[in-house]
């Protein structure tokens, strides 16, 4: 392969040209990550509480759901939601399907994180709440969860960064996220150095920013 010496390795003018396209893809990536994580932390807490429920069928169903999701690939789950679920009459837009897939997948991991936090609360806290005649849900809200959640914030933050880096999988269900936008831009001119470099920098900067936010929350809740 003969390299043209007059052609720069990194063309800043071309990088500025493709930047608006990449920003559109970045916005999709951020939406998918934020909404998916909101779903994951909410549903994960529900699953964790269900797994610890005194009603055995509910606990077994929650445990089976968690283990099934953790034991199957995220890409397969996205394909199922996008291609199989519409057969049953339930259909979402590609982005909504991606958010749902990310949220369901990481909810299973967040549930295990929450479970570890709940089991780390001394049993005496439950007994003291019962002695004060507090109801089950008030005990959870006012006594147990304020002690169980702060220690697991770093682990939840790790899953936030992991979800952000998993968003390129959404291109498999036609979502034009950040990496897919760079591939489309590169295929138009056969120059991939600039868009892929910008994508790598964007992932690095936003991952570090997310980690910084998690550390701030950890210090505030400590």
UniProtKB/TrEMBL annotation:
Q: What is its main location?
A: membrane
Gene3D superfamilies per UniProt: MetI-like
Record family assignment = Belongs to the binding-protein-dependent transport system permease family. HisMQ subfamily.
What is the recorded membrane topology of this protein?
Answer: Multi-pass membrane protein
One annotated GO molecular function: transmembrane transporter activity
Keywords (alphabetical) are: Amino-acid transport, Cell membrane, Membrane, Transmembrane, Transmembrane helix, Transport
Query: What subcellular compartments does it reside in?
Result: Cell inner membrane; Cell membrane
Membrane-crossing segments per the record: 26-50, 196-217
Which PROSITE patterns does the record match to this protein?
ABC_TM1
Q: What is this protein called?
A: L-cystine transport system permease protein TcyB
Q: Which GO terms describe its cellular component?
A: ATP-binding cassette (ABC) transporter complex
What is the protein's species of origin? Answer: Pigmentiphaga humi
**Pfam families from the UniProt entry:** BPD_transp_1
Any one Gene Ontology biological process term? amino acid transport
